[in-house]
Amino acid sequence: MPENELAVLDEATLAELKQYAGAGKDMIEEEITPRLILCQPNSPEVTKDEIARAGELVIKPIGKNVGKTFCFVMIASTIRWVRWKHRDEGGGIIWQGKYSELTDAQKEECKWPPKGEKFPVAEGDDMQARTKKERGQPIATETRTFLVIEYDPTTHKVDPNGYGPLICDMKGSSAPVGKDINTKVKFFGGDDLPIFALVVEVGTERRENENIYFVYTAKSAGPISKENGKQLNDMFGQFKGLISRAGTNADEQE
């Protein structure tokens, strides 16, 4: 929700309601983990909510625009494939999952054509399949999903703004950046250090083919401070399981 939604409450009402903080929320079984998303020109944060420009990063559902750079440490990482329905045919997700969980038919849509070739368009293909085949890409989209915690490499504060654990998806043209992040984290200290030992700074970059779009960039922002080790290890133990329940958000369509 936008940050200013509480502004509609006067101080007396707000003070009264705060007496009952949290009441009933334990009855909401849906687990909601905030997401760090990269806004595209057609993202609702740009076209509808008007809280960001294309190429800026927003945390959903709180509607916080964090600009074009964000520093974090990784808690967990996974790879899943997402089969989208083309926006011009209504958009949304047809299926998603880890490769090992997919049916044989779904795995076929994850295949790359031979180098320099394209899969032929078939009569029954939907618009997404035709578009991807014409680009020489798999029909489904490889998505690298990260569970991260914000980290300030200047002050060495963990979660300085209180966002808690965040899901971050890197898909399509950003997938290689996600792979690079995994490589940086995995080989920083090898088996001698935890995955949250390295701070990563992500940014954004504009690209253009038939449309303008934005992709992630990433670079190392150095190691964490020794004072943060226990705190981050506790958070790792508490939150690492969230990634297994975090599917891709339909609002983040390519």
Number of strands: 10
Share of helix, binned: 10-25%
What distance lies between the first and last C-alpha atoms, to the nearest angstrom?
A: 22 Å
Rg for CA atoms: 20 Å
Overall shape: it is: globular
**Beta-strand content bin:** 25-35%
- Helix/strand order: HEHEEEEHHEEEHEEH
Helix run count: 6
Mean pLDDT: 87
Structural class: alpha+beta
Spans of at least 5 consecutive residues whose pLDDT stays below 50 are: none
Biggest sheet details:
10 strands, mixed
Summarize the topology.
Blueprint: H1 11-18, E1 35-38, H2 44-47, E2 57-60, E3 64-67, E4 70-84, E5 93-97, H3 104-108, H4 127-135, E6 141-152, E7 157-158, E8 166-171, H5 175-187, E9 198-208, E10 212-223, H6 229-239
Model description:
The chain is an alpha+beta fold. The protein has a domain at 3-7 and 33-78 and 145-252. 20% of the residues lie in helices and 30% in strands. It is built from six helices and ten strands. Strands 1, 2, 3, 4, 5, 6, 7, 8, 9 and 10 form a ten-stranded mixed beta sheet that branches. Strand 2 (57-60) and strand 3 form a beta hairpin. It is globular, with a radius of gyration of 20 Å. The mean pLDDT is 87.
In short:
With 254 residues, the protein is α+β, with helices and mostly antiparallel strands. Helix content is 20%, strand content 30%.
Identify the notable features of this structure and list them briefly.
30% strand, 10 strands, globular, alpha+beta, 254 residues
